[in-house]
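Agenda item 2: DWN complex prediction
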Amino acid sequence: MNNQVCRISGQSLTKSVDFGRQPLGNGFLLPQDYATEYFFPMVVGFSETSMMLQLIEQPAPEKMFHEHYAFYSSTSSYMAKHFAEFAQSVMGSGYLARIDPFVVELGCNDGIMLKNFFQAGIRHLGIEPSRNVAAVANTHGVRTLSEFFDEAVARNVVSQDGQADAFLAANVMCHIPDIQSVVKGIQALLKPTGVAVFEDPYLGDIIEKTSYDQIYDEHVFLFSAHSIKYLFGLHGMELIDVQAQKTHGGSMRYVLAHAGAYPVKKSVTELLAKEQALGLHLLSTFDKFRKNVERSRTDLLALLRGLKAQGKRIAGYGATSKSTTILNYCGIGPDLIDYICDTTPIKQGKFTPGMHIPVVPYETFTANPPDYAFLFAWNHAEEIMAKEKDFMAAGGKWIVHVPEVKVF
Ligand code: DWN
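Presented output:
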């Protein structure tokens, strides 16, 4: 889908960073499928009206989210803890009705968050279009509906289950191109006292850390408080609270309600002021971002080529969706990185999208450790460092590209 205009304001978009030809972020594949591999031109554009940074062109959702979707949320034990805490914070927030509350989660994946509501005996529904991950959620007792959420689906849910006290989503809203229909759906779904609580990678962190790898096919939007306030304001809803999160290299949790239902918390005005200072509402900020991205690529290639010239062995750690942007934007293939290890069975034995580096089981990393490991899963650094003490003790070193390219 090629949108030269902003999906929110309908105004024309100004091109900000061109990442060239990119494959699907999670399109891990076998050699027999190389000839038909899908690519699209990945360019982000900015609208000064909606203040939303977004992909100008995005593959059709059916190409990205299907019954072979390669990402399972529960691959990280830290994330399981994070979502248990997210669920507890909603249960203790005072926004849920005391009698028979109803909670809906969009993109519940393998049930990592909703299983906590199931365990607490709270009526819930997960709306998850990828049937393979939804099936795992079902095994945890989570009730699911395999659909792409929009206004029509929201109205069906209301007619069957009634309106909801809370609409939740984590790392999902930024994936949906027809976000206007989703917001209309949220508006219809929520009780007059209901709240929408969702979190996504935060544009402020992406700009500050030059973490351009958060930009790939699935992430059609890169949200800020400014753009979320504008988007929901179009549909009679108000941003009432924000809470910064450490997950995914810096995320923001947004709380929205029907306009006037609750007072707006100080956290919102504070974050809006911080964003003004950072220039998240200005086109010029994205020019600076582009220059930083280009410098990051130059530094990374110089480092990898230098190490290779010294005969060092480099492997990747975590075949993330994010790594697809880095590898394809920088042109890093098996000549520089021998393999990428990953604990997800569905990715193992396949090759990375576009650059075709082998993805191997985690055990290959421990059996055949490299001299340097490129930490593609840098957002899970704390969890990974805690379990890779032997690699470091044996002299193994890490490469990261955020907030700058370095070895440690
Ligand atoms: O928004 C999205 C986020 C939430 O998840 C999706 N669009 C897709 C996906 O993005 P990602 O692939 O960049 O997410 P992660 O969580 O950074 O992926 C981590 C990868 O690393 C997984 O494939 C699992 C793997 N892993 C590993 O091999 N060993 C992870 C950990 C923690 C480990 O110890």
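Discussion summary: The chain has a mean pLDDT of 95.
Owner for follow-up: CH.
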